[in-house]
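Changelog note: in this version the structure field was regenerated for every chain. One regenerated record is shown below for reference.
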Amino acid sequence: QTRKKATRMSSDIPEANPYLERRQAKIARNESRLEELGLDGRFHNASCQAPTSFDVKHEIDDNSSDKKKEEPTRRSLRLKKIPAEEGSGGKRQRVEVEIQKNRQDRTLANPSSSRARIIKQSEPKPGTTRATEIDLQKCLYGAFDYPVFIGRRLAKTGKLAVIENANIMCENPVTSFNKYSGVCEFKNDVRFLFANINAPDSDIRNEFLNNGGQFTWFGGSRMREESESIQKLISIGKESGNSTACLPHGSSCGIVLWCRLYDSKRRSFEPYVCLGRLGYHSHEIDYSSGRVKMLWNLLDIDFLRSSAGQDGTCLFEDLTLVR
């Protein structure tokens, strides 16, 4: 038993490894060579070691500690330790003052880049309403000598029915348009404005003023006062004037208003009603919605008040009585 135990212990002793022996010999030879040259191997290895990320981070922190801290670029009242005004009215008033101040600063710094600068639109694509001319008189009068379509409701719903009716009256081919925009532009100076009355869950409210003689219309969320579409509406509205006389024959300039009423019982919009031509009165920035708010004069107000539908009711009165 003692002999078996000794045999087992001798087998547990690892045999000599030739590779480790050669490695140790090379290390001893290199260290001896470094001593002859007057170099310490341990110091040399430590000095050639690459710096770690910890050393680099602390070096950057040490170098930047002497620099002056930059002030934050945010204009936050909380960061400036200024107490905010109570209520939403004070906040809105502060925003309005800030907007007006920024506009004045930009105007003083560069007068040529103020409101006079117009944001240009892209070139119209073929087959769209922007690339198609339209006869305004045919859109409103049709084949008659009086505005048969003013004060009348179309048979179909949606903006497509308005564009199709105009193309049929003018004998134009089928054209595409932006159904999400509140204004439809044509190649000549003719514009269709679309507005919703009594729309639910809307951040804007289109309404009639001065006994139905005026109407408020809001531009889209992407429209700005400097936008070409807004500037063109102002130009065409001023050129059309505020005359309530009949539309001159062959007129190719004007703005037509199309309104539709939301039926709360059916929970859907009714077809559009043509309310005739518009004349420019004024415009401003509505700070509650951030949109351009325009006030228009209804040039065909007399005809609208005397017009009646097939059932004898006046659609214009129905629209103006909505609250």
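Spot check on this record: Residues 140 and 146 are 8 Å apart (CA to CA). Residues 111-116 have pLDDT under 50 and may be disordered.
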